[in-house]
Amino acid sequence: MAQDTIFTRDRLINLAIIITAIWFTWFAQNFFDEYTVRIINNVAIFIILAVSYNLINGVTGQFSLEPNGFVAIGAYVTAILLVDAEAMEYQYYIEDASPWVLALQANFFWALILSGTISALLALSLSFPVFRVRGDYLAIVTLGFGFIIRILAINSPSITNGSLGINDIPEFSNLYWTGGIAIFTVIAILNIIYSKFGRAMKAVRDDEDAATAMGINTFKIKTLAFTTSAFFEGVGGGLLAALLTSISPDLFTFFLTFQLLIIIVLGGLGSTTGAILGTIFVMAGLEWMRFLDEPMDFMGIQTDAMPGMRMVVFSLILIIVMLFAREGLMGKKELKDLFKKKKANK
């Protein structure tokens, strides 16, 4: 009876959170100013990327540095499918666009699905060589993949327009798309984590050799986490392309992966709630602190503009947080675990 009560309570909490998130998405899209909506759009996309990246890096414990590669694939696939042939012919300066690139067209929904699917299929093919190594070697291999994708984008001008990138991408990414897909991504990832596959992923993270001894097919579990993560990263890349309306290889450097790594470590490796909080803290916080770069009047004292000051302050805040919260803001806990703790204390 007690377990049934806890299960019902958890479902009600989850339902309340989902309804609140949907309501906030609708309210923000209709009542917030354009600048604020733009920031929330960016936060929603990075929630998709952070939550999916956390599945392979935090939940499964595989130190992978590949997100920029899969995000780039998703962004380019979406851009190619959305930009019409006439606009492509006009902007491809280095080399004429390939005929098959000009022939490809799809609506936004199918462009996102294809972006995620192609990223997932590539991750599936990569899993065979990638998961022959562990630890730091795995990080090096996946890091190299990100560099390869970027170099291919630069050196394939008939497909990607080379270093000039693709412009005039239709701006489809409003909050209904980004917020809706972010909510779906969080629900899907949490369902995986609380399934038998999620428990196997945590076993691989805690002790891969012991998991193998217990009969868990660790390669299958790591591949599942890797391909799932890649799918949502590809979708996130497509949303990013349709938000920015212009992409180039410079957008998908290792800095993107490093940014996501900061987010999931700050929030707590293995915590989906932590990944969400980390995204809000990093992406929205950096925008809010832009006033630090501008001239200020502090208690009657005028200060000149100090470009980069917000990054200094943000770095100090990160250091302080990591000193006092060694496992991140949430550790490995989820939101429902906080409610359980409160009830136990009572």
UniProtKB/TrEMBL annotation:
Membrane topology: Multi-pass membrane protein
Record-level Gene Ontology MF annotations: branched-chain amino acid transmembrane transporter activity
InterPro entries in alphabetical order: ABC_transp_permease, LivM-like
GO cellular component: plasma membrane
Subcellular location: Cell membrane
Membrane-crossing residue ranges in chain numbering: 12-29, 35-56, 68-88, 108-130, 137-155, 175-194, 224-247, 253-286, 307-325
Pfam family of the protein (one): BPD_transp_2
Keyword set, alphabetical order: Cell membrane, Membrane, Transmembrane, Transmembrane helix
Principal location class: membrane
PANTHER family linked: HIGH-AFFINITY BRANCHED-CHAIN AMINO ACID TRANSPORT PROTEIN BRAE (PTHR30482:SF10), HIGH-AFFINITY BRANCHED-CHAIN AMINO ACID TRANSPORT SYSTEM PERMEASE (PTHR30482)
Protein name according to UniProt: High-affinity branched-chain amino acid ABC transporter, permease protein
Organism: Arcobacter acticola
